[in-house]
Design goal:
This protein is of the alpha/beta class and about 300 residues long. It folds into two domains: about 180 residues, Rossmann fold (3-Layer(aba) Sandwich); about 110 residues, Pantoate-beta-alanine ligase, C-terminal domain (Pantoate--beta-alanine Ligase, Chain: A,domain 2, 2-Layer Sandwich). It contains ten helices and eleven strands. About 0% of the residues have low confidence.
């Protein structure tokens, strides 16, 4: 595994690989890696000749009252994980190289960024779109891998790639969960043991919606109320949103007609968590199996 800090070097190395007809897979991260990130690297290794992970805590996607300074930075441990995962290259640029002192160009995010996280975290998706486009240009990959846990982020990146005609395929990979169903996240480490137990309310709320859909419930107001009830039962401290939305546009639905995603953002103490579940009307689908068994770990 080769660790590269220089912007020109990473681009040059990968351009040589492309000329040799090597297929390149990219896994953008902000570090503090867990098994969810490493599952993306595994997918890249399975489908490509070369896997590239990036580690960069992007300052432009954090608001003024958010946790940029507290965001976990565990570079040496991250590099060990990536080495064990068989990653080919790790790109670790410095912030002042990505954003020079006179930097003033940003990407205006697509319409799908407007609601939910876009409303609660103004400017967040502008920062996401900008850094992802920068990484796509610096790391000339064929495929980029993103987890479905950040569902709206995934939708934003897909729309940006389509709108700007970026010649890269975006692959959505399953959410990786703990044995009890909690979605793996770098922010889980902030939870106290008591908050960690209450955080399971997000997964239980999502499972309840899938349960109702399988029973034939199609009124989204009822589905949303069920999520709120489960979150209240779990004593989460506050709920930013808990809604069933269109899987593509993320616009609210009135009726569930076979396509939709349940999305949640809630707070436990000082920690904000997000989660989602793609809904299906089939009682044999893998999402429902995981919910029914109170989760068995792995992906949904």
């Amino acid at each position: 595994m080769k660790v590269i800090h220089d912007l020109n070097e990473i681009h040059t190395q990968l351009e040589f690989a492309r000329r040799d007809s090597k297929r390149i897979g990219l896994v953008p991260t902000m570090g503090a890696l867990h098994d969810g990130h490493l599952s993306l690297v595994k997918r890249a290794n399975d489908e490509c000749d070369i896997s590239v992970a990036t580690i960069f805590v992007n300052p432009t996607q954090f608001g003024p009252n958010e946790d940029l300074t507290k965001y976990p930075r565990t570079l040496e441990k991250d590099l060990d994980h990536l080495r064990q995962a068989g990653c080919s290259f790790v790109f670790v640029p410095a912030a002042d190289k990505i954003y020079a002192p006179n930097h003033s160009t940003y990407v205006e995010p697509p319409t799908v960024a407007n609601r939910w996280e876009g409303e609660i975290r103004p400017g967040h998706f502008r920062g996401v779109a900008t850094i992802v486009l920068k990484l796509f240009q610096l790391v000339p990959a064929h495929i980029a891998y993103f987890g479905r846990k950040d569902y709206q982020q995934l939708a934003v990146i897909r729309a940006m790639v389509d709108d700007l005609n970026i010649p890269m395929r975006i692959e959505a990979c399953p959410t990786i969960r703990e044995q009890d169903g909690l979605a793996m996240s770098s922010r889980n480490r902030y939870l106290s043991s008591e908050e960690r137990k209450r955080a399971l309310g997000l997964w239980h709320a999502l499972c309840r919606v899938q349960e109702l859909v399988n029973d034939g419930e199609d009124r989204v107001s009822t589905l949303n109320d069920a999520m709120q009830s489960k979150l209240k039962d779990a004593s989460v401290d506050s709920v930013d949103y808990a809604n069933v939305v269109d899987a593509d546009t993320l616009e609210p639905l009135e009726r569930f007609q076979g396509q939709g995603v349940a999305i949640i953002a809630a707070r436990l103490g000082k920690t904000r968590l997000i989660d989602n579940l793609t809904l299906s009307q089939s009682s044999s689908n893998s999402n429902y199996d995981g919910c029914r068994d109170d989760a068995q770990g792995g992906a949904d």
